[in-house]
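Crash report, auto-generated. Payload:
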Amino acid sequence: MNGLKATFNKVKLDDTKSNEIRSKLMNGKTVSHMWLIPVAAVLSAMVIVMVIPSTRNIVVNAAEKIIQEFKIYTGNGDVIARVTDPDTGKTIVEYYFEDSSPSYARVKDGRLYFVLNDEWTDVTDICSETTYYRYEIKHEDGIREVIFVGGKVGVNTYGWIEIIYDAEDNYVVSVGKIPSSDPDGYQMSNAADFEWVKNARRDEELIWNNHRDKDVD
Amino acid sequence: MKNDDVVRLFDLYANDLYRFALSYLGSKQDAEDVVQDVYLKLLSKALFIRRDQEKAYLMKITANACKDLLSSPVWKTSVDLESSTEEIISVFDFTDDDQEVYRTLISLDDKLRIPIYLYYFHDYSYKEISKILKLSESAVAMRIKRGKDQLRDRLERLI
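Recovered output after restart:
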């Protein structure tokens, strides 16, 4: 063992302080859960919440019946979680944005990149105001993240959208960031204004419907 | 976060966070306060963390809390590092070798000290350190190199 390890291994919280903190944690009050949209609006003005249309009733209804709890730390560092409120039995989806700056869509020297885990993929030639780049992450626990990067750099229609599915392929939530064309900076935007977002949603529904049709009676 | 979950994280990682905060701040009292604040904040957030990322996440939050404290004008005027160091040496019953290691580490500027600590105590990679400290990997590598250069022949005792 090196000297630093040998020395710092002797350093521990003293028992009195440890017990004091532990007691506070055991008896401390937790906050009540909040619904997704207000939480997102409070935490980040750059965030758009996109909800897949109600035509996907099967997904919506299935989501409301979910009683499992899952947690996910997404590729850009955000935490998304879904739990069932024990008092009402309702499904609640929550976000925690640890850092509002990370983004799947980054611009460098006029080129648009899909960025994940410090890997930069140039998607400039794939993306336009109507087209997008799609990337899917499948986690070991079955949760899927489907990420879209689209738009055009020069006219500020670029950005990213992410859709999360649980292990049973139920839609959980979607989130994204798209800057506005306002020269003063980012503002809340309506994702539906952007053609590439509409196309991504439509294509994603088609993929999902084809997949689910195998299981629906 | 549920009380049980936070207590579980406390039992698992409180000492790691405490050592980290101490290496950052050099003050026993402030390190204790940071650890308490980090865990109390978990209670107050509707937050869930993947199991394989719990420790790294907590280290990141601790680093943020320490940075905030270090940049506070109140901290700058109220902390006497020499007295704090003497207290730590006494409380943890450091041997002469321990004292030298500790004083050597604390003598470094915190920008160099923290990456050195994370690298040599926690065996974190440059990439992992970059995520905890929100630095680029190249910045982490440079700071560790500079820290090693400053310590030079004293480094043998440290590592």
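Post-recovery validation: Chain B touches chain A through 48 residues (CB under 8 Å).
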